[in-house]
Amino acid sequence: MKIRGLMMDPINNMPIVILKEATGNAILPIWVGVAEANAIALEIEKVVTPRPMTHDLLKNVLLGLDTHVQKVVVTAIREETFYAVIWIDRDGKLISVDSRPSDALALALRIDCPILVTDEVLRSSRSQQGTPDRITNEDLKRWIDFNDEDLGKYKM
Question: Are 127 and 135 in contact (CB under 8 A)?
């Protein structure tokens, strides 16, 4: 998956991270908090802050500990809450770290590691998007253009 951008949910005014399948058409919207969306937007826009932000600090700590983030995986969705795991390699030993998807995505952008989503999450997300208080894929396609040129034009 690739982060295609950020948008505001016009129904509840919450930020949404839009993930799109790199080789297909699957789209996964993940609602996140404002602070987390800002952290993602900063990296999409390549904004350099005077001091390390939280996800920059995490990146620096992981690099300082001589580890390698192999991938981040959105692993589950339960009661409208997404779950993720950050997979870290240290001296050949794989370590899984539970994470909110927003934090895993903010880190993945900074470290440039693969972003994966389980098939179960994609299926579950599609089935839940049919509820009246959720945005459908058709809504997303209407509200956001998925041109590569538009990536990074999001402003919080």
Answer: no
